[in-house]
Amino acid sequence: MSLNKILIIGHLEKDPEIRYLPSGKPTANFSVAANHKYKTEGEVKEETEWFNIVAYGRLAEICSEFLKKGRPVFIEGRLKTRNWVDSNGNKHYRTEVIAEGMRLIGSRPNGSGESTADPIVAETDDEPAF
After folding, report:
1. Quick check: 80 and 67 in contact, CB under 8 A?
2. N or C: which terminus of the chain has fewer CB atoms within 10 Å of its end residue's CB?
3. Residue 126 has what pLDDT?
4. In 3D, which of 88, 86, 8 has the Cα closest to residue 54?
5. Given the DSSP bridges, would you call strands 91-104 and 17-20 parallel, antiparallel or unpaired?
6. pTM over 0.70
7. What angle do CA 49, 51, 54 make, to 5 degrees?
8. Helix (H, G, I), strand (E, B) or coil at 17
9. What is the CATH number for 20?
10. How many CA atoms lie within 13 A of 77 on its CB side?
11. Residues with Cβ < 8 Å from 111, sequence gap 6 or more?
12. pLDDT band with cut points at 50, 70 and 90 for residue 120
């Protein structure tokens, strides 16, 4: 038995970038920053960890439409590491979170100056088709 599951709550670094695979399936890429505070020797310190997120299919379209720079978001997904060799023969690795679900958190203006809770929850069972 095994489990590959990650849950992240953080803020978007910038608006998602949406592209289309050769199959026509949409894919969205974005980064989420999650902060961690801890105390050492009586001093409070803070670290920021950046997560590269990839969403596919309808979830990619929803992320592209609703996620904006600075918004708090909850991402559920799994880790995947890609590797490739560049034109100079150097091998590169990149670990990404493949999004399986997204939920906006916090509140947003509703046009009348008041805040409303975000009802946007999106999940996918899509696998990339290259």
Report:
1. no
2. N
3. 58
4. 8
5. unpaired
6. yes
7. 175
8. strand
9. 2.40.50.140
10. 27
11. none
12. low
Residue 128 included in any domain: no
Q: Report which of 77, 78, 72 is spatially closest to residue 35, judged by C-alpha positions.
A: 72
Closest by Cα among 105, 56, 103, 52 to 79: 52
pLDDT digits (tens, 9 = 90+) for 12-70: 999 999 999 999 999 999 999 999 999 988 899 999 999 999 999 999 999 999 999 99
Looking at the chain, the whole-number percentage of residues with pLDDT higher than 70 is 82
Is 82 part of a structural domain of the chain? yes
- Determine, yes or no, domain membership for 1: no
Closest CA to 10 of 65, 77, 86, 61: 77
* The pLDDT of residue 106: 79
Q: For residues 51 and 10, is the Cβ–Cβ distance under 8 A?
A: yes
